[in-house]
Hints:
Blueprint: H1 2-38, H2 49-58, H3 77-86, E1 156-157, E2 163-165, E3 180-181, H4 198-202, H5 210-214, H6 224-236, H7 241-249, H8 256-268, H9 276-281, H10 290-300, E4 324-326, H11 349-352, E5 360-362, H12 384-392, H13 394-399, H14 415-431, H15 445-456, H16 466-469
Antiparallel strand pairs: 1-2, 2-3, 4-5
Helix pairs in contact: 2-10, 3-8, 10-15, 12-15
Amino acid sequence: xxxxxxxxxxxxxxxxxxxxxxxxxxxxxxxxxxxxxxxxxxxxxxxxxxxxxxxxxxxxxxxxxxxxxxxxxxxxxxxxxxxxxxxxxxxxxxxxxxxxxxxxxxxxxxxxxxxxxxxxxxxxxxxxxxxxxxxxxxxxxxxxxxxxxxxxxxxxxxxxxxxxxxxxxxxxxxxxxxxxxxxxxxxxxxxxxxxxxxxxxxxxxxxxxxxxxxxxxxxxxxxxxxxxxxxxxxxxxxxxxxxxxxxxxxxxxxxxxxxxxxxxxxxxxxxxxxxxxxxxxxxxxxxxxxxxxxxxxxxxxxxxxxxxxxxxxxxxxxxxxxxxxxxxxxxxxxxxxxxxxxxxxxxxxxxxxxxxxxxxxxxxxxxxxxxxxxxxxxxxxxxxxxxxxxxxxxxxxxxxxxxxxxxxxxxxxxxxxxxxxxxxxxxxxxxxxxxxxxxxxxxxxxxxxxxxxxxxxxxxxxxxxxxxxxxxxxxxxxxxxxxxxxxxxxxxxxx
Length: 495
């Protein structure tokens, strides 16, 4: 009997021992899992901060592209007036579109679409994915550039640089007294009506575009200046706007010069440069994950040194050389009327007429880039991973490219032929050594992931938080004319 009891006790002890071992195993596994999560699942080689510190010094980088710039605050009266104007459909020819229709703060200062739908949307206040045009196709031929950090551009605005500072003085957004060229003047010729800086100059043009805001029926056959005068007269006759201009300018006169000045101030107040990379540059070694540090090395180092050479074009604290390059991105959408069938987009060539500029587009800034998709002049890519992989081997990547990956349906038109023309142009430029795009870079999936980690570290947290962005979105009480865009998404949620 005692032997049986002892045997049972031994079996019980064995079971308890095994259970305890199992619990320890679970605890240890959980510990390893949590540890891996705290490191972002990073099991790659550790980057020594001294390596990056050398690069930061050599570039040289301050971490702050807004340093020493004179920028307005969103709380200033002129910027507040600009915000109200930015959100009113009264600046749309048929009262169905506003500046914000393609540039909402919650959507990264853009519209979260490959190609915009400006006028005649089936639901004018529905912004982002789900916004539709009766034709079923987007109406605007190029991806909407973000208004975030528009104040940091010194050379030009728009994908093709059609609003361009002639002086290109660093740090002043075109406000250097040397003049600004716009589509209202010949190339390399000052537009005397451009306004004081690039931001104000570009605010003069979306209202003149039939696809973006004007429609074909507003001021038929009128010039751009005719359209602007008509809009200023419209606001002057509406109850509410004269008092708004009186409070800012000291008299109720409404001109489009003043409208553009206010909208420019609002856009220039959207400066978002507080990010983990800035904190790292300023000395906080813990601000970046190890994966992001590896990505930074890939970004800044040349292919010969094991890097990806991204800095060749994405240079400086603003992460752009502000120049134009041929990349051969897929040409989706209606195009800009170029090519034999009118479905192509020749990019910078449309402005300069120089063969080297055919299919060249402006280098975008990488600040907040994780919030700026879809990517490319025609919004051809949904993810940063896709963009990076296309850079590595454009020809092979295009062979497997499909618009089915886009969340928004777009016309393919003559996409194959048009894109192949751009890829052929890129091949010529790479062969003669004038292209800055490295022709022979291979990255592992881990290295692509590391690059994305670094790009994510360029995000100002404010641009991801509705509460923080609320300062740039008017309240219903700030609706001056009854035409304020009260934006909502495809699920009916307010933006």
